[in-house]
Amino acid sequence: MLSQVSRRALSVRSFSTSRIAFAAPPSGGKDSFREKENAEEAAYVRKHEAEQLAKLREELAKQKTKIAELEESINKK
């Protein structure tokens, strides 16, 4: 009988709240680490887009000067 009781005790699953604790942050749904990470990512994206825009504007200026030179050479003929 003792072996039956010990088997039953081993087969009973214990209740744990650890999954619940990890499922939702304790601050009522706000996760400061996630917010900081999103803010840093947004800042990186804005910086990268600004760099790309500066390069495109520089290329545009070069193309405009080239067009102006070509129009000038056409008008001379």
Automatic annotation (TrEMBL):
Keywords: Coiled coil, Mitochondrion
Entry-linked InterPro entries: ATPase_inhibitor_mt (IPR007648)
Gene3D superfamilies: Single helix bin (1.20.5.500)
Protein name as catalogued: ATPase inhibitor, mitochondrial
Coiled-coil residues: 46-73
Primary location group: mitochondrion
GO molecular function, one term: ATPase inhibitor activity
Pfam families, sorted: IATP
Location in or out of the cell: Mitochondrion
Organism annotation: [Candida] railenensis
Its biological purpose: Inhibits the enzyme activity of ATPase.
Record's GO cellular component terms: mitochondrion
Similarity field: Belongs to the ATPase inhibitor family.
